[in-house]
Design brief:
Blueprint (H helix, E strand, L loop, with lengths): L2 H43 L6 H32 L10 H33 L9 H25 L4 E3 L6 E3 L4 H36 L7 H34 L4 H25 L1 H7 L14
Antiparallel strand pairs: 1-2
């Protein structure tokens, strides 16, 4: 590895560390603000009613927090140790492979958390009369736990069947080895492609619904709720695309050359860190419930599920 390549790899890793640290501190601030508002509401009103948007927001915050923490522990710190030549002997230990499996599962959980939020918006707009789709118990006790179970079970073959979670060549951690193409396609589909496609389908249906509404209500302003949903879902899709594009370009190049360089994995985790940072920072702009909670001296309506 040339000195210039080593400098680039180390720079990517340091940027990744900064972004993940920002994401962690931001999520901690969000959680502290939510707890503080709960205490304030309890003190002023005597009871707290938690709604679906708030639960889904907390679900996303926790996913970002866990994923970023795991990435620092499993990827960033060992890579920095290697880059600064503090330690050069790294082994493929089973616990490291399992830790990589958990990290990748949390990456998938993060994307599926956004899909779940998009699902709530989708059902509220398209199936506004189906009240059972907006029950708190459906999300709290069924959909959110199933999201974790589905991702962890779906990625389990990578650890026990495909056996492509291994020590990355020239790196200091275990991860998905992209030389096994079909296994990589499967894992990418579970963690990114399928949730991305689902959000796209939701987006298409909502656009169609808005066009039908416009045709019926000529000359009238679009329903504010539909507009907010479209704008926020479009932002989510744009952020997902931004995270995937740099990695995909390098991955295609490496497939053509049949040689997978370390820069592929550095860009992969840098893109992941950029996603965590962007998601954490922009979350209040996507979710009005969180933005209301963060307002100084302001308490968001706790029992209003039309806020998102």
């Amino acid at each position: 590895m040339s000195n210039s390549t080593a400098i680039v790899d180390c720079t990517f890793n340091l940027i990744s560390l900064v972004l993940d640290t920002i994401a962690i501190f931001t999520c901690v601030i969000y959680l502290c603000a939510i707890v503080y508002r709960f205490i304030e509401v309890k003190y002023r009103r005597g009871h707290i009613i938690i709604d679906i948007p708030l639960i889904l927001t907390i679900n996303i915050i926790c996913a970002i927090l866990i994923k970023s923490t795991l990435q620092i522990i499993h990827v960033t710190v060992p890579t920095l140790i290697k880059d600064f030549q503090i330690m050069n002997n790294f082994q493929d230990v089973l616990c490291y492979r399992f830790r990589a499996y958990v990290l990748w599962s949390m990456v998938g959980v993060l994307y599926w958390s956004y899909t779940l939020l998009a699902f709530f918006r989708f059902t509220r707009v398209i199936y506004s009369t189906k009240l059972w789709l907006r029950r708190l118990s459906l999300y709290l006790y069924i959909l959110i736990p199933c999201q974790y179970i589905f991702v962890f079970i779906s990625l389990l073959p990578s650890l026990v069947i495909f056996n492509n979670i291994d020590l990355i060549p020239n790196e200091a951690y275990c991860g998905i080895v992209y030389s096994q193409f079909y296994a990589s396609v499967y894992e990418t589909a579970i963690t990114f492609s399928i949730p991305f496609s689902i959000v796209g389908i939701f987006y298409t249906f909502i656009v169609r619904k808005m066009r039908e509404t416009t045709a019926i209500r000529q000359g009238q302003e679009l329903d504010r709720r539909d507009y907010i949903v479209i704008r926020r879902m479009g932002l989510n899709m744009m952020l997902l695309s931004m995270m995937a594009l740099p990695f995909m370009i390098i991955y295609i190049k490496d497939i053509i050359q049949n040689h997978y360089e370390s820069i592929l994995y550095r860009v992969q985790w840098l893109s992941s860190s950029v996603g965590s940072g962007l998601f954490s920072i922009t979350l209040p702009f996507i979710t009005t419930r969180l933005r209301d909670i963060l307002k100084p001296n302001g308490i968001a309506p706790i029992n209003n599920q039309h806020m998102t």
